[in-house]
Specification:
Blueprint (H helix, E strand, L loop, with lengths): L5 H17 L8 H27 L7 H26 L6 H24 L1 H25 L2 H4 L5 H8 L4 H5 L7 H25 L1
Helix pairs in contact: 1-5, 2-3, 2-4, 2-5, 3-7, 3-9, 4-5, 5-9
Length: 207
């Protein structure tokens, strides 16, 4: 967590507690865990987009902060979708029925939680999002350490390669080199999550 204070500590406690529960099903830092958690994380941004659009629509965005948050949430949502596609589609992380079932049902709960919290306390919603991304960073750092070298050295997945070539993608914009192997992809995703930590901390300060 980049943010400090009671509310930030509370947000981190909630998300860390939830992550410990999910680790019962997904203890290893592998494609199963990554794909499932990315579904849940992306849903938080989708909920934030919905709530911010509603607040903007009813005329509560007097200084443009909500519009900026909405635009940032859309970019983050798109980036998280790429993460999910890499692990779920390219690497088969959602091949098991139980993973799809749990991830999608938890995502429904997360959607409504973040939507309601965003409407009434956007600072807390942003801090919760920051805590989610802080936990994601840990997952990808563990993946780089725990997964076998032959797995990490397989070629970059098709979706990762296609994303790097998209106009305005976060990897090229940040100055990353085109990923050649899966290790490069995971390192780029870990940097994405660090960027999301900083972005959510900034959004919390804006409100």
């Amino acid at each position: 967590m980049k943010s400090r204070g009671f509310k930030a500590d509370f947000a981190h406690f909630l998300i860390e507690s939830g992550e410990h529960l999910l680790s019962v099903l997904w203890p290893a830092a592998d494609a199963r865990r990554a794909a499932s958690l990315e579904i849940i994380a992306r849903t938080a941004y989708t909920a934030e987009e919905s709530a911010c659009h509603y607040l903007e629509t009813i005329g509560l965005d007097q200084h443009g902060a909500i519009r900026k948050t909405l635009e940032l949430a859309r970019r983050q949502d798109s980036n998280e979708q790429t993460h999910e596609d890499i692990f779920a589609r390219d690497l088969g992380g959602l091949s098991l029925w139980i993973d799809r079932f749990v991830a999608r049902h938890v995502a429904v709960i997360v959607y409504w939680l973040f939507a309601v919290v965003t409407l009434f306390d956007h600072e807390l919603a942003s801090l919760l999002g920051e805590a989610v991304e802080a936990e994601a960073v840990k997952t990808y750092q563990r993946m780089l350490l725990e997964q076998p070298e032959d797995w990490l050295h397989q070629p970059a997945t098709p979706i990762a390669s296609a994303y790097w070539k998209e106009e305005g993608n976060m990897w090229a914009a940040r100055g990353d080199q085109e990923p050649k192997i899966l290790r490069d992809v995971i390192e780029a995703i870990a940097r994405d999550e660090l960027d999301h930590v900083a972005a959510n901390s900034h959004k919390a300060l804006a409100f």
